[in-house]
Structure formats: C-alpha cells, structure tokens
C-alpha cells in the first residue's frame, strides 16, 4: 500500500508540475511574441538590408558587402566615431564618479533621504527627453542662463553650443547630469555592505579614506561594473540630445555628430536605408566589443563576496 501511495503522489506531483509549466508558458507567451515580432524579426531584417541598396521607395537591391566597404572611405562616419568615442569615454566615467560620490554622501544618513533620492533621480527620467534637450540649448545659448551666471563674475560668455570647441562639452555635461539611475543603484549596493567591516577597520585605526578604498570600492566593484556596462551602452545609443541641441545637423563643424545621429541622417535624411542598416550593425559590433572588453577586464578588478 505504501508503494502504491507513493506512486499516486508521484503522478499527482507530475500533473501539478505540468499544470504549472503550462501556466508559466501562457504567462510568458506575450513576452516571447514581443521578443520575436518587435526585436528578432526587425533585427534580422536590418541585417538583410545591410547587404542591399535600399531607399525606402523602391525594392531593395542586393549589393553584397558594398555598404561595409563604403565605410572605409566615409569621412563623416570616421568623424562621428571620433566624436562618439570622446563622448562615451569622458562622460561615462564622470557620470559614475558623480553618482558614486553622491551615493556615499546620502548613505551617511542624510535627513530626508527619500526626498533627495527622488530629486537626484529626476534628471535620469528627463535627461533623454526633447524638453530637456531644448532647455539645455537655451541654457547654453548666447543669451542663456549660463552666460548670465558668468556675467555675475564679470566673465563675458559665448554661444557654447554654437562653438565647435565647446559644443560637445555641453552634451557631455548633459549626460553627466543624468546620474540619478546609477546613483540609486550605488546607494542600494552601499546598503548591502556590512557595517561590521567598517567597525573593525576603525578599531585598527583605518582612516575614512582607507576604508573607502579597501572596503567600499572592492565590495562595490560588482555594482560599479554593472553600472559601467549599462552606461556605456546607453551613451553609445544617445541620440535625442545631439539631435535637438544641434537641430539635427551635427553641430558646428560636426562637433556633436554622434554616431546615432549620423545613422539617422543617412537613413531618414538621405533615404540611404541599406547603408544605415549596415551602420546600425557596426554600432552593434562596437557596443559588443566594448562589453566584451569590460567582461574580460572585470576579472582583474571586480571582486565577489562569497
């Protein structure tokens, strides 16, 4: 009887597992459909278009690897790559440094923490919007608020966005300003570090600076790595700020011609959609290469607490 009872229990558990599996499938089905129809199909379609000459008005014509060979002699593409690399390599470290600094300050028990956290997170929600980009263009214009601020100290301003020497710096500053999202993640990571580590270090006579470098940074390194990967990907995909601030032209002397903006110009400005699709896949390769390098380098500086 006991063996028969165990067999019945096993059959009941199997039926329950199958029922749970079917329920999970139906709940996941909308996501899988979205992945297939919204992501996978357009992705593969763009890959196919990258090997064609296509202007949106006529059927695509296969041209092999001509679009990729054309990239080697495209001077504006090379210019946009240079601008984008500077934008990413300067703005992302500054953004993460500011986010980490404010997270450490807020982690020390500031009164009204929820209010400050919400205020600091707000730029991350609005930073990529058209309204903020228009505001940024106004602030750094010839008659903008930044020049009014400099005028208080007797410094004559200029058109910061209209000057090729400073236009990219305004976009970098805008990206740094959207530090709220990584700051909140840093703050959550800081809350997971046991206080006993700092207490033991204080007993041994370690200064706040030594505690930061020998406890906070190693324990927070997985969070830093996570934010670094996400923000690099986000920076490479930046488009709205450059498009609105430069009115879609790429700024003076192409000083704010980010790669995504050039891709847009080729695809929807010149209707060179085949070449634009090839540019999109170049961006995928670049982001993938940076991500792979980060994962490879992480084994030398990211520490996981076992």
Descriptive overview:
It is a single chain. With 306 residues, the chain is mostly helical. It folds into two domains: 2-49; 66-301, MetI-like fold, CATH 1.10.3720.10. The chain has 13 helices and two strands; from the N terminus they run H-E-E-H-H-H-H-H-H-H-H-H-H-H-H. It has helices spanning 2-49, 66-70, 75-106, 113-126, 130-139, 145-152, 167-177, 180-190, 195-203, 208-236, 240-245, 259-269, 273-301; strands at residues 52-53, 61-62. Helix 1 packs across helix 13 (273-301) and helix 8 runs antiparallel to helix 10 (208-236). The radius of gyration is 26 Å and the shape is globular. The two termini are 47 Å apart.
């Amino acid at each position: 009887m006991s063996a028969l009872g165990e067999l019945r229990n096993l059959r009941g558990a199997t039926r329950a597992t199958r029922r749970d599996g079917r329920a999970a499938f139906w709940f996941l089905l909308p996501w899988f459909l979205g992945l297939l129809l919204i992501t996978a199909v357009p992705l593969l379609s763009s890959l196919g278009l990258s090997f064609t000459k296509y202007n949106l008005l006529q059927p695509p014509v296969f041209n092999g690897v001509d679009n990729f060979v054309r990239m080697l002699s495209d001077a504006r593409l090379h210019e946009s790559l240079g601008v984008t690399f500077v934008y990413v390599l300067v703005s992302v470290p500054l953004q993460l440094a500011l986010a980490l600094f404010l997270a450490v300050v807020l982690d020390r028990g500031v009164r009204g923490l929820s209010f400050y956290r919400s205020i600091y997170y707000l730029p991350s929600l609005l930073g990529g919007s058209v309204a903020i980009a228009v505001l940024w263009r106004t602030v750094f214009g010839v008659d903008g608020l930044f020049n009014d601020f400099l005028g208080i100290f007797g410094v004559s301003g200029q058109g910061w966005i209209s000057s090729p020497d400073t236009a990219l710096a305004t976009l970098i500053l805008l990206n740094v300003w959207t530090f709220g999202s990584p700051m909140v993640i840093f703050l959550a990571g800081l809350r997971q570090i046991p206080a006993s580590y700092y207490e033991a270090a204080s007993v041994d006579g370690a200064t706040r600076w030594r505690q930061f470098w020998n406890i906070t940074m190693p324990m927070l390194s997985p969070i830093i790595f996570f934010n670094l990967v996400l923000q690099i990907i986000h920076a490479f995909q930046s488009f709205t700020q450059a498009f609105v601030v430069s009115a879609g032209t790429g700024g003076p002397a192409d000083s704010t011609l980010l790669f995504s903006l050039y891709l847009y110009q080729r695809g929807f400005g010149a209707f060179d959609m085949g070449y634009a699709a090839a540019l999109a896949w170049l961006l995928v390769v670049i982001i993938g290469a940076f991500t792979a390098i980060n994962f490879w380098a992480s084994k030398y500086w990211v520490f996981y607490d076992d």
